[in-house]
Amino acid sequence: MRTLADLVSADDLRGKRVLVRSDLNVPMDGTTITDDGRIRASVPTIRTLSDAGARVVVCAHLGRPKGAPDDRYSLAPVASRLSEVLGMPVAFATDTVGESARAVVAAAGDGDVVLLENLRFNAGETAKTDEERAEFAGQLASLADVFVSDGFGVVHRKQASVYDVARLLPHATGGLVSTEVDVLRRLTQDPARPYAVVLGGAKVSDKLGVIGNLLGTADRLLIGGGMVFTFLKAQGHEVGSSLLEADQVETVKGYLADAAARGVEIVLPVDVVAATAFSADADHEVVAADAIPADRMGLDIGPESSALFAEKLADTRTVFWNGPMGAFEMAPYAAGTKALAEALVEATSRGALTVVGGGDSAAAVRQLGFDDDQFGHISTGGGASLEFLEGKELPGLTVLEEDSP
C-alpha cells in the first residue's frame, strides 16, 4: 500500500485537492463532544497534507442518520474542535457533495482545510448496491485529485467514502491507518511473549470470532465485562440476573475445551460487584463469582479479580485489551476497569507493547483520567481492530492494495 510519506515525497501536492477520509465519529452529549480522541488522532495526517500545500478536503460521518440530513448528527461542532486542535481555520460545508461543498472546496487555497457535512446524510454512502455507492463516490471524487484513507475505524465497511472512492482516485494510506495496521500486525505475526488478550464489554457474541482466532495466537485470555457471565454459566455456575447470552453457552463450552487442549490459559474473575439493579444508586456488594445471588447482577469485576488480572499481566511482553471490565460509566462499577488500565500502564513502563482496542475501552481510559501516551497504542477503531484480529478481509484496506487509477 502506498503511504502518506510516499505520496508527499513523490508528488508535488501544492494546489492539489486531497480528499481525506477521516474517522471523526466522536461521542456527543447534545452538541458537546465528550471525547475528542478521534479528532486529535486525525490531525497529523491533515497537518502533513496542509503543510505540503494541498487543499485538504476532509470527509467523515457521525452517528447513524438514516441517509438524510439530521441536525442531531451535524459535524459542525466537530469542525469547530478540529479547527482548535489544528490551530487554523477549518471551512465547513453544510452539505456533502452539493452546492455548499462545491463552493467551499472551490474557494480553498493552498494549505487550507475543508470539512464536508456528515457523509451519512447521503443514502449512497452506506447503500447495499454497488451502483448506488458508486454514484455517490463519483460525486465525492469529483471534489478531489487524490484520496487519502485515514479513517481506520471504518476500513471494515464497504462504503462509498471508504472503498469506492479509492477505486476512482490515486490513493494512499494516511498516517493513522498505517500506524494501526503496523501495530495490529505485531499482535498477529510473531508477537513478543507472553502475549495476553483482555476482552470485556457486554456481549460474548461480539467477540466470538476474535476469541476463536486468538486461541491460536495468545498465551492467555482474560475475560471480564458483561460477557463473562456466559463463560461462568458455561462452567456450570449460576449468574443471578446478570447479562447472559444463553444461546452462546454451548459455543463458549467449546472454546473453553479448545483453549485447554491448546494450552491457552483462560482467566475468569473470582469475584464480582453484584447489584440489585443497573443503577449507580442500587444496593451492591462484592460476591464470589460462583455465588452470585439470584436477585443480583454482576456489574464489575471485584478487587480480588483486579489483583488476579494484574498478576496475569505482570510478565507480559504484549497485551491487547478490548472492552471494559464493568459498567465504568457509573462510579461504583469503575474500579475493575481502572485497575486493569493501571496494570497496562505498568506493563508499558517496563517495555511491553500495550494496545487498547478502541471503542468503549478508549473512552474508559480517558474518562478514568489516563493519558493516551501511558499506553503503547490506543486504537481508533474498535470494530475494525477486532475484525483484523479475527483474520477477516477489511475492504477499506484491500482496496488500497490495488493500483491507483
Give the strand content: 15-25%
Q: What share of the residues lie within helices?
A: 25-40%
Order of strands across the main sheet: 5-6-4-1-7-8
What is the first-to-last residue Cα distance?
14 Å
Count of alpha and pi helical runs: 15
Main beta sheet strand tally, sense and closure = 6 strands, parallel
Average pLDDT, to the nearest integer? 94
* Radius of gyration using CA atoms only: 22 Å
Low-confidence stretches: none
SSE class = alpha/beta
Shape: elongated
Tell me the total number of β-strands: 17
- Oligomer category: single chain
SSE blueprint and pairings:
Blueprint: H1 4-10, E1 17-21, E2 28-29, E3 32-33, H2 37-51, E4 55-59, H3 76-86, E5 90-92, H4 99-107, E6 113-115, H5 130-141, E7 146-149, H6 160-164, E8 171-173, H7 175-188, E9 195-199, H8 208-214, E10 220-223, H9 228-234, H10 249-262, E11 265-267, E12 271-275, E13 284-288, E14 297-301, H11 303-313, E15 318-322, H12 335-349, E16 353-356, H13 359-367, E17 377-378, H14 382-390, H15 395-398
Parallel strand pairs: 1-4, 1-7, 4-6, 5-6, 7-8, 9-10, 9-15, 10-11, 15-16, 16-17
Antiparallel strand pairs: 2-3, 12-13, 12-14
Helix pairs in contact: 2-3, 8-14, 9-10, 11-12
